[in-house]
C-alpha cells in the first residue's frame, strides 16, 4: 500500500484575520505582509521542496497595516499580492497550494491558474461556540466556497478539525457533507482529519484535545464515508504514531518541511521523513506533488504551471 506526502515550504503571508476562532494561536492583531524579498529567500532555502504552501488570516484587507504594506509594495489589492507571491514561487520552481480562508469569486478566479491545488477546511458543518466571532467559519459560507472551487475544477483539499466542541455524530455529518460535495463536483483530492491542539493564550488553552483513540475512530469512520479515490490525511506532527493511523485508514501525511515550522502548530515539529519511513515498514512511502496523481493524469492544471508539473511527475502522476 502506498502512503504519500509532499515536501513543502510554508509561507504565512499575514496573521491579520477578520475571524477570531477561539482555538487559534496563529492570528495577530494588525499584522503586516511578508515582504517579497523574505519570501524569495525562504524559497531559496527550501532546496528539495516542490510545494509552496500559502496560508494567511481570512480577508485581511481590513487591517490598516495590511493596507499600508500593500500600498508600499505597489499592489492595489490583497489578491494581486497573493497572485504575485504565486508567480514568484512558480518562477523559483515551486507549485503553489493556497489555503486562503473564504474569499470572493474574483479572488478565486485570479489565483486559480497559479495554484496546483487549493484548500479550505470545512472544520465542522455545524455551528459551534468557538466560531461565534468568525463569520467565515459559518458552515454555509465554507460549503459555498468549496462548491465554487468545484465548479472551477480546482483540485481541492478540505477536512475536519476534531475536538472543537462537536459531537461524534457532527463529525459523521461533516464527513457526509464533504462526500456529497465530491459526488457533485469530483474535485476533492484529500480530506484532512486534524486534531485540535491547544494553544497558550487562547480561549481554548485548557480545552482537552481529542485522545488518540477518538482520533482513530474518526479516521476509521472517515475512511468508510469518504470515496475511495480521495485520500485521508493525518498530519504526522500532530498524531505522532502514524503507523496506527495508517492501519485505521489514513493514506496521506500532508506537507512536511525541512526549513519552515508548521506555523499553525509551531510547538509540534515535523518528524524527519526517515523517521516516518522507519515507522511505516511494509508500506511504500512515496512523495507526491500538491496536485494529486489522478488530477495530473486528468490534466486539471493550467499552462502557467504545466512545465513544472510535467518536469516533476512520472507517467502515473507521482513525483519523479
Ligand atoms: O503545516 C500545515 N499544513 C497544512 N495544510 C497543508 C497540507 O498538508 C498540504 O499543503 C496539502 O496536502 C497539499 O500538498 C493545509 C492545507 C489545506 O488546504 C487546509 C488545511 C491545512 C492545514 C495545515 C496545517 O495545519 N499545517
Ligand atoms: C490551517 C488549519 O489549521 C486549523 N487550526 C487552527 N488552529 C488550530 C489548532 N489550535 N489546532 C489544530 N488545528 C488548528 C484550522 O482548521 C485551519 O484551517
Ligand atoms: S484559524 Fe484561520 S480563520 Fe480562524 S482565527 Fe485563525 S487565522 Fe483566522
UniProtKB/TrEMBL annotation:
Its EC number is 4.3.1.32. Residues 3-237 form the Radical SAM core domain. It catalyses: 5-amino-5-(4-hydroxybenzyl)-6-(D-ribitylimino)-5,6-dihydrouracil + S-adenosyl-L-methionine = 7,8-didemethyl-8-hydroxy-5-deazariboflavin + 5'-deoxyadenosine + L-methionine + NH4(+) + H(+). [4Fe-4S] cluster binds at residues 17, 21, 24. It comes from the Archaea. Pathway: Cofactor biosynthesis; coenzyme F0 biosynthesis. Keywords: 4Fe-4S, Iron, Iron-sulfur, Lyase, Metal-binding, S-adenosyl-L-methionine. Signal peptide: none annotated. Its cofactor is [4Fe-4S] cluster. CDD domains: Radical_SAM. GO terms for molecular function: 4 iron, 4 sulfur cluster binding; 7,8-didemethyl-8-hydroxy-5-deazariboflavin synthase activity; iron ion binding; transferase activity, transferring alkyl or aryl (other than methyl) groups. PANTHER family: 7,8-DIDEMETHYL-8-HYDROXY-5-DEAZARIBOFLAVIN SYNTHASE, FO SYNTHASE (COFH). Belongs to the radical SAM superfamily. CofG family. This is 7,8-didemethyl-8-hydroxy-5-deazariboflavin synthase. It comes from Ferroglobus placidus (strain DSM 10642 / AEDII12DO).
